[in-house]
Predict the structure.
Amino acid sequence: MDETISFFTSLMIDGSGNGAQKDMVIRVSHGRILSIQKAAGDDVRAPQCRNLQGCTVIPALIDAHVHLCMSGTSDRETREQQLRLDYDGAEQVMLSHAREQLAHGVMAVRDGGDYAAHALRFKQERCSCNALPLQVMSAGKAWRAPGRYGTLIGRPPIEGLTLAESVARYSAGLDHIKLVNSGLNSLTQYGKQTPPQFGVEELRAATAAGRSFGLKTMVHANGVLPVQWAVEAGCHSIEHGFFMGRENLERMVEAQTFWVPTAVTMKSYSEKLEKGTVEKDVARRNLGEQIRQMAWARQLGVPLAVGTDSGSLGVHHGASVVEELKLLMEAGYTLEQSIHCATAAGARLLGLEDQLGRLAPGMTATFIVVEGDQSFLPDALTTPGSVFMAGSLWKNSPQDGTWCNPSAELAYS
């Protein structure tokens, strides 16, 4: 983008967590924000001002926990088939999911691993600015203990090597390390916890091995001890964290460990499972407990980023971010604080804070536009009016599914 252009918006939520600002003008040059200021009468009438009257502008969204290879469909045959796909088949599935993310204003995702590292190859081969402008951060394959949960997303340490030695040997080309340190949440026994998969020293050595390559470590962990050991080991984020307890949240504040709650997974189970079953009731109670922990996290100041575990049953790519935002608000976060968790906080966790997450001078002018004011949010994010990347409108081509800047003509004038 070569010319300087201005955008007038009736409301702006900048990603900082602070309150929304009314009647603002965002000046952009060469794809970056020059200034943001309160609008004056002459600003709106200027020839190079694009009028977004009646709209709200927010930074592009970030989903800090997805599985691009997997769909949220409840069709069992489709789900099982996706777990056996070769790369060519998986690529088509991931392309569909990536387009769904972009259509909802999600510009960056952090993939939590798959059995064949398909998402890593997809990121390397298909995610270019010209065809698919989704920023994909991939762990390749996760690491799990032998015989423990995690077969669908990873593998055990290499025979003859420690966990740390395995991490060091297979870190090239990755964006982060994914470790699995507990089992799944039980849907038949409320509050059941599983033991850690790795000892605290194993986790510490593996985290240090990743750090030596400049990589952060995300840890799947539910329950008190699996989370405690992961935090003590210096991991960068706890994924899920069901039933970890208030003391672990206090540890995370002290260590500045991020939490990615993925509460929407239990919301989906509570809605999808058959009425009157134990599983449906346990899922509902799991969700209630997770919301209570999210309320504690807000009170304590735990760094929290939005992640959905998209690909889980009923958790659809793109759309599930809106549902996770609603759950944050149910836990007491304001709209602006919730959006912060899905923008600036996510960007900091993923190491993208110089590219995404905030609307501020010097930042890339990448944002989404929704019709209406804050009373329409977060629901309006389900169908954003426009997606701007580096100050230019981008659209999804219905012919071939590519994303491009169709012309200088904007959706609003």
The longest helix spans residues 278-300. The first strand starts at residue 4 and ends at 12. The CA atoms of residues 200 and 229 lie 5 Å apart.
